[in-house]
Amino acid sequence: MQDKKNSGDSIDADHVRRLTQIGLALSAEKDIDRLLEKILTEARTITNADGGTLYMMSDNAKELQFAIVQNESLGLAMGGTGDEMTWPTLKLIAADGSSDHTHVSAHVAATGEVVNIPDVYDAPGFNFDGPRAFDQATGYRTQSMLVVPMRNHDNDIIGVLQLINSKDQEEGHVIPFSGKAQKLAESMASQAAVALTKNLLIVELENLLDAFIQTIAIAIDEKSPYTGGHVRRVVDLTIKIANRINHTHEGYFASISFCDDEMRELRMAAWLHDVGKITTPEHVVDKSTKLEKVYDRIEDVKIRFEMLKREYQLAIKNARENLDDYPSQDVEKEIKALDEEYQFLVRVNSSSEFIEDKMIERIKLIAQRTWSTSTQTLPLLTEDEIYNLSIRHGTLNAEERNIINNHAAVTYKMLAKLPFPRKLQKIAEYAAAHHEKLDGSGYPLGLKGEQLPLQSRIIALADIFEALTAKDRPYKKEKTLGEALKIMESMVKDQHIDSNLYELFIKEKIYMDYAIRELTPQQMDI
Questions:
Q1: How far apart are CA 192 and CA 151, in angstroms?
Q2: 6, 295, 459, 479: most buried, per Cβ within 10 A?
């Protein structure tokens, strides 16, 4: 025959079903704060406790942090969806460096033992000054207490569940926690630890992925001293635009809204949009003049001009010493012409203005001059120098521009190889299409119209505006705000960027919010 006491403390089928339901509910909860709140609420319900506290172990395992505090009689709810948690942490290490066993929760965290106290006012071995002070301040009477450790799959204690004042279900007065209540609480703590560990692991993995992605983006920016901060600024603009779309209730975007997973996917795509530049040579990314390779070859050109001038100067000197009838005035004019031609090449080399046909003709005319070494006579400019100085706009020749443009294709190749979770599967597609244009003239795939996802269009607009206003590019002067918007207006007309996005960009003054943070006073012409 079963002992009556043991029979009363056993868990019956109803409680097993209830624990199963709780386990399913905890497994389904994704929000950490709501999960913590649900753990304590369900633990109180199943043990009929009036109040309770859920502590979480700190990262360094030296403190217990108050996560959730509840008390039904006092109407107290802190943490989770309740009031903000303001209570200080509970130290686990004493002043001498040993584990603190004076506080019952610290003792349970250190030993992993369950502590069941009928009345804390009559419990030797622990310091209950805290509950006494709480009771004195609120008029409450803390009596029975059940403290249970929460262990993860590695058997590490990740939290402590503390339940206060078990109530008799029929009469409502406070009673000690029964053996059944203790078993239910231990089972509950075990299920809660599993659910919490799973959620924390997911959060930690997501944080690790976010941090890793941002580290890659920072490395790409740092690869070029002139583009530091570019990716961060594009991400900032991208998310600002997406948030405004989410809060728009009229017009084109009224029915469009990005959920949390879609926002995260978009954010990651923006962080990774330039990841392909990791394969782009620095001397191409940072090419600040037309003749720059590893160094600016205008210095080589300068040496040749100086050598040629020296030839003329020596000819004049020899003629004067030998009293020859040498046309020195003509030679001096020639030297002056050399100086002017060199300064012209310097301007062309560093100029961001459009190079016209007549300027290219002058470059070719200058190249017809020759200079002499000790063994040979050479043209003043090499074919490669003529080719690069004749670049119509910017500093990149066709081959270098192809290398730069290839970063978008490389971005897709790299990101498509990564096994992103299902909810992040379009990161490669969104990131790689930031140089595509609605009319199909973009790269790398020449996508057009509806082939371009809205997310890619957002990143593209952010990338263009950042590039136009960037004040840290050596190869071009930054545009003022008015100049940048005028260029973008023409890009809308040419169907290079999305007209609806640009209208939102202007109407919601997203450009102004960005400009106030990122642009110089000289750029603020609006």
A1: 9
A2: 459
Rounded to an integer, what is the distance from CA 231 to the centroid of its chain? 9
Q: What are phi and psi of 277, to 5 degrees?
A: -70, -10
Contacts for 160 with CB less than 8 Å, ≥ 6 apart: 54, 55, 57, 64, 105, 108, 109, 147, 148, 149, 150
pTM to 2 decimals?
A: 0.71
- Domain ranges (residues) in the chain: 4-202, 224-281+406-523, 298-395
Q: How far, in Å, CA of 100 to CA of 110, rounded?
A: 8
Give the span between the Cα atoms of 521 and 457, in whole angstroms. Answer: 29
pLDDT (tens digit per residue) in 174-209? 999 999 899 988 888 888 888 888 888 888 888 888
Superfamily of domain 4-202: GAF domain (3.30.450.40)
If 0-12 CB within 10 Å is exposed, 13-18 middle and 19+ buried, where does residue 171 land?
A: exposed
**Cα–Cα distance between 292 and 226 in angstroms, integer?**
15
Alpha-carbon distance of 461 to 449, in angstroms, equals: 15
